[in-house]
Structures are given as structure tokens and as C-alpha cells.
Write a structure and sequence with these properties.
binds FE2/S2 (inorganic) cluster; single chain; 12 strands; alpha+beta; Ubiquitin-like (UB roll); Fumarate Reductase Iron-sulfur Protein, Chain B, domain 2; binds iron/sulfur cluster; 398 residues
């Protein structure tokens, strides 16, 4: 904390004029102006529960609904055109001198602000705001005394299967937030819904029964990807409904980038091929399939930005002959490429060759050999594997 404060002092030991000081739960916090109360709290390790907020997305509050969305063939017209997104309301805090509680994720910091994140009033309001979210979402397991370690395949409380938690249980953001806030006794029993579930398109599944209308996915699609294949509306009951802007994802212009899946806090959008605890391997299967474990996503990103020399340096971290490999490798990475499920695999091998053919020698500037060890290693065979072994052994001083 002290280090953070020092970082923001100018050379005379005064605070930078672009920062503000506020007090959160009697703790002094200093942060750049323009940040939100939530960001200030997080910078000081003060937890505030959130659901619609995501650090990479603009706030939900104020977002405009679409005219209509589709859940498959079902078209849902927006019934409240003048009503912007209200946000989940779980991040409320009290600010001294203000009569109403405010959403910390969309409230900018001010100098001298005094914030309370955990008093009785704030906690009660969060609990109240969680009620409508859980009223339209299955929550029997969240209130169950036997939830710890329960596989949910058999229920000792006789909860029907379609009312039990989904496989996201244990890794679910909604579950964590509900556990933290506490579920009000006033939460009505969830009445099972029969909304569409889509399992047949590439890469990810959609189960609208598990959607809480946080609109993160729509913001990720529009603001991170610039696509806007999905949006939200208010249905005739005033409930936020998410859907595609045309009957299918493909017709809506979806690029199958799965950014929406990445930000979804529930089991509504799930990646088809990600196993529990194996996200890194399963989301980047090309790197796992590459015998040399080259950081393929990184070099493809660099090539896309016109940085062939840097891309070549990334490849050379693992293999000393990118130009040769770019011509002879049988590229098992391309068999694993997830893009193949959508249309065709990325031309990973040919792009390696391209980067190698364009390189200007950047890798040599960073290349270092350790001190001579005096040890010798005999290598049998002078093919790509033998030469690679020789190259890296030499770099290690042998
Ligand atoms: S499946 Fe039944 S016993 Fe298990 S956590 Fe859910 S409600 Fe409780
Ligand atoms: S998303 Fe799944 S695990 Fe999370 S609260 Fe809902 S049903 Fe339970
Ligand atoms: S997968 Fe499709 S809907 Fe999801 S963010 Fe990407 S483009 Fe948008
Ligand atoms: S699909 Fe997921 S991210 Fe999108 S609104 Fe529903 S819960 Fe939120
Ligand atoms: S997290 Fe702030 S309104 Fe939802």
C-alpha cells in the first residue's frame, strides 16, 4: 500500500494532481482521477461483490436495449425502449452525505469521498437486489445445507434434476457472489423455465435457462470484438432477455471468437471443449499439440500486427529453424486448431514460414549464451532434432 502511495508522489514528495484521495471503510486510498469507486476499492484489496461488472467491459448501467433479439426462431421484441440497462445493483456502497446508495462500478471517485462498503444498509440492499436475480434462476443447490462436495447426480433433498445447479457449480461467479451476499429468505422458489438450449453450433453452447441478464456477453461482443451479434431486450414482464440479433449466430455476424463465453458469470454460455481445471490447454490446443510447445497464439498475434520480426523471435524461443519447420513440419497444431470447427484451421505452419522469411535478425539481439561449462555432449544425427539439441545445448554453455 505504501509502495502504491509512493508511486503516485511527484519528485517533491507531493501527490500527483491527477490523483484523488478518498476513504473507504476508514482506510485512506489514493488513485488516479477518473477511476470508479469499485476500482479504488479493489486497488486497496477491499472486496465489493459484482455481477454485471467485468474489468474489461464498460459498465452495464446505461446500455441501450436492441429493438428485438432472437432465441433461435423465437423473436423477443423490446417492450421498454426508453429503459436503459440498470445493472445488477450488487455493487452498491454508501457515500457519506448522499441519501441514496450508489453503484460503485459506475461511480467515479472524488477527492475527499468517504465510502462504506459493508454496513448494514449496504448489505441489506445487496441482498434485496439479489432476490430478482435468483427468482429467475435455479438456486436450490445454493441454499442447500449439503451442497459442499455434493456431485448433484443424486439429491438427498429430492430436488428435481432440472432444478439443481449446472456443471458450473464450484466454479460459478453467481454462486460465489450469492454465497458472499447471502440469499434472502424472501427469495421465491424458482419456477423451471423451458427456454431454448443450443448445443449444435461450433465451439460453445447456450442455455438461456441459466442466463441472468447481466449483459456482459453483449458488451463483450460489441465493445471488445466490435461485432454486435448479440444484444438484450426487456420482455413483456420487464425481464432482461439476451439473444442473437438474427435467428442464428452465423446470420447475426458471429465470429465464434468466444469472448462472450469468457465473460459469462454463469453456466449460460459454456465452452464445449474446456474440461474443469484444463482451461489453458483446452482453449489453446495448438500449443499443446506442437511437439516444441511454440507459443503459437503469441506469434500469430504479432504477425497480425505486422510484427514479423518479433513473431520470428517468439518462434525461435523454442525452435532454431523456423524457416525449415515452416516448410517441412507436418503441423499437428492445425489438426487441433479450434477454428477448424467453425470453418478451417489457421494456416499456422505457413505463417511460421512467412515470419521466418520476413525476419530482420531481431532475435540475435536478445540471444545470450551462458558461460562455458567445459562439458561436451555427443549428438547422434544431424537432422532437425539433432541440430536443435545442439543449438540449445550450446546456448547453455556446453
Ligand atoms: S443436488 Fe440436492 S443435495 Fe446436492 S446440493 Fe443440490 S439440492 Fe443439495
Ligand atoms: S450458473 Fe449453474 S452453478 Fe451457477 S448458480 Fe446457476 S445453476 Fe448454479
Ligand atoms: S462468439 Fe460471436 S457472439 Fe460471442 S463475442 Fe464472439 S462474435 Fe460475439
Ligand atoms: S448469457 Fe451469460 S453473460 Fe450473457 S447475459 Fe446471460 S448470464 Fe450474462
Ligand atoms: S456490478 Fe455494479 S451494477 Fe452490477
Amino acid at each position: 500500500m505504501l509502495g502504491n502511495i509512493r508511486d503516485k508522489m511527484n519528485i517533491s514528495g507531493e501527490f500527483d494532481m491527477n490523483t484523488v484521495k478518498l476513504t473507504i471503510n476508514e482506510q485512506e486510498v489514493e488513485i488516479e482521477s477518473g477511476k470508479t469507486v469499485l476500482e479504488a476499492a479493489r486497488s486497496a484489496d477491499i472486496y465489493i461483490p459484482t455481477l454485471c461488472h467485468h474489468p474489461d467491459l464498460p459498465p452495464a448501467k446505461g446500455g441501450r436495449p436492441a429493438a428485438a433479439v432472437y432465441q433461435g426462431e423465437v423473436k423477443i421484441e423490446n417492450s421498454m425502449p426508453d429503459e436503459p440497462d440498470k445493472g445488477c445493483g450488487l455493487c452498491v456502497v454508501e457515500i457519506e452525505g448522499e441519501s441514496d446508495l450508489v453503484g460503485s462500478c459506475a461511480t467515479p471517485v472524488r477527492d475527499g469521498m468517504v465510502v462504506f462498503t459493508e454496513n448494514d444498509r449496504v448489505q441489506a440492499k445487496r441482498k434485496e437486489n439479489l432476490i430478482p436475480i435468483l427468482a429467475s434462476h435455479r438456486h436450490a443447490c445454493l441454499t442447500c445445507a449439503q451442497q459442499e462436495g455434493c456431485p448433484r447426480t443424486q439429491c438427498s433433498s429430492n430436488v428435481p434434476e432440472n432444478e439443481r445447479c449446472c456443471p458450473q457449480f464450484g466454479h460459478c461467479e453467481l454462486q460465489n457472489v450469492a454465497n458472499y451476499i447471502g440469499i434472502s429468505d424472501a427469495t421465491p422458489k424458482w419456477i423451471p423455465t423451458d427456454l431454448p438450449i443450443f448445443r449444435d453450433h461450433p465451439l460453445f453452447e447456450r442455455d438461456y435457462n441459466l442466463c441472468i441478464g447481466c449483459t456482459r456477453c453483449a458488451r463483450a461482443c460489441r465493445d471488445l470484438r466490435g461485432v454486435e451479434a448479440i444484444g438484450f431486450v426487456y420482455d413483456e414482464n420487464g425481464r432482461v432477455r439476451i439473444g442473437t440479433l438474427a435467428p442464428t449466430l452465423a446470420d447475426s455476424g458471429c465470429k465464434f471468437c468466444t469472448a462472450c463465453v469468457e465473460v459469462c458469470p454463469t453456466g449460460a454460455l459454456t465452452d464445449k471443449s474446456v474440461r474443469a481445471g484444463k482451461k489453458e490447454e483446452d482453449l489453446v490446443p495448438c500449443r499443446e499439440a506442437c511437439p516444441a510447445r511454440i507459443d503459437i497464439p503469441e506469434y500469430l498475434r504479432l504477425i497480425a500486427r505486422g510484427k514479423q520480426d518479433e513473431a520470428h523471435a517468439v518462434i525461435r524461443e523454442k525452435v532454431p529453424f523456423p524457416a525449415i519447420l515452416g516448410r517441412v513440419c507436418i503441423h499437428p497444431c492445425e489438426d487441433a486448431c479450434r477454428r477448424g470447427e467453425v470453418n478451417e484451421a489457421v494456416a499456422i505452419c505457413a505463417l511460421k514460414r512467412y515470419a521466418a522469411d520476413q525476419e530482420k535478425g531481431l532475435w540475435k539481439q536478445k540471444s545470450q549464451a551462458t558461460e562455458e561449462t567445459g562439458k561436451k555432449v555427443a549428438i547422434v544425427g544431424a537432422g532437425p532434432a539433432g541440430l536443435t539439441a545442439a543449438f540449445y545445448l550450446r546456448k547453455q554453455g556446453h
